[in-house]
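ESCALATION

Customer reports they have been waiting on this structure for their group meeting. Please prioritize. Original submission:
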Amino acid sequence: MTGQVQKQLEQDRVEPGFTAAAPGWTQADQLPSHLAANLVGLRTLIRRELSRIMRIWTQTLIPPIITMTLYFVIFGKLIGSRIGKIEGDETYFDSLRGEPSSDYRFDPFLEGTLSGLAFNRGASGSEKRPPAPHAPAAYAAHQLLAALKGDGVSIRGAYGAATTPAGATQLAQVQSPTLTTLLGLTLPPSDNFFAETLVKDLGALYGGAGTTAAGAAVVRQTIAKLFGFQPHVVDGSGLSASDLTSPYEVTDLLVELAPTPIGAVLRSDLAVAGLTGTLSERMRRSGAAGRCEGKTGTLTGVSNLAGYCQARDGHTLAFALFTDGIATTTAHTIQDHMAISIADY
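Update from on-call: job pushed to the front of the queue and completed.
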């Protein structure tokens, strides 16, 4: 097992949102230790959720209103009964359904099927029966057709999957959620499907192709350019045993990100010890509850935990704990005790 606690981050280098102490919090120190930890955790959770709501309310309320308005105007008034066949186009990504550890085939650990047009995590419905190489796209088209018909829109044709023809006219669009929102959906529950989809997005936008390999190359190149080291990254989820880095590199990365705006976003979207995500049942009623945030990573015989803790002396500490060849339950116990020790520093 390798563990590292590196570099105290002085408070003047950290964004305001990084400060765990708030007016009145010192009163918790007068309570029994388990009650104080619960009080700190509750206040941290309330503050974080209020902050998140204030940041993303325009993303969660306005887009649905715009979408519904466009829906009724375009489909209800302008197009009417002129809709023919509805076809889904998934060519923004390649057609590989999995990631490297499954040899790009369907992988149950992804909890979804990768596609450039995925509805309900790439569900296929009845379209999953072969021959159906573009089943997620066809199923998405099927669901759109059913929704339109359910709202009284007359459609003459059927549904399927196809490539968008040249010269097609765009009728409407919906903006993607912000990176803050996407990280909030991906990191706390450690969502492999979202992570793999995001890395393909990176490949499509910045790597020349909507593939896992292109997206992973973007990640490697960006880290090398900004932070001076190049971990071996082959996917977005970390499911592949070919992903290689070290606790030193991960901790250095966390330290460098901490005083930046993206670092503040990252920390606000990590799972909170004893409260949220994959850490909700870990380190409860301890000094780390509500004061440590982290990202978990678990494979057979491998378990990692990396993130930040607000120490009792007021400093923010970055850490990365890697364990290998230890049963997962035992590894989690060791990691939790180390994180608690960091929080109590």
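Sent to customer with the following note: The chain has nine helices and seven strands.
Escalation resolved.
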